[in-house]
Amino acid sequence: MSGWGIDLAYRRWTLADYGLPGQIDWEDIPGFFLGGVTGSYKSSVAAALIRDRIDPDHPQTLAVRQNRCVGSNDTGKFVYRDYWEYPKSFVRWMSALGLCSYMRQGWDEKGGTSRKAAGLVRNCRIVVIDDVGTEIGTDNQTAVNAQLLGEALDKLLHNGVGLIVTSNLARSDMDTRIGSRLCDLEEIVLPQIDHRARRARERKKIVARPHEIKG
Prior knowledge:
Blueprint: E1 31-35, H1 42-53, E2 64-72, E3 78-85, E4 91-95, H2 96-104, H3 112-123, E5 126-132, H4 139-157, E6 162-167, H5 176-179, E7 186-189, H6 195-202
Helix pairs in contact: 2-4, 3-4
């Protein structure tokens, strides 16, 4: 999954690892909302959703079958082989704060923030917005970020880009301008367990036993 905008730590997960059905139907679903506590594997499930979407066996796969020449045989005839090709940079994975920073760059560009949002639609088939809720700050920062995030969500949702949003917050606890826009997303409920903390508790500890220091 190199070059697909997914961190190495998340690339091996599949939907089956989380008890979810393979080949999720994206036909009438604009995307997914993954809510849960810190460490509940939200980002891993997001990566599994992407992996399912690009599985060549998925009827709605984003992969395109291509055919190319790979050489010639003993008789001199060209040999062709099928392979799967994926759209370049078709996944964009951003934190909510990173998305706000990306959108803010549009203030100094011709066309403004709408041009930045249109760039996401033009270049991406799937966008992951990670950790919605972490973009809050002072009252002014929160208001500005809500406006920028809302504008990006509108553009993505209205133009058929697959959207995956993760958050520690319930949609009802978000700024109403954000939570309302996410209501069309299919919600995947995750157990409210911090798996990272649980693994740390279960992990065998390495105990250092320094020699007694002699004076």
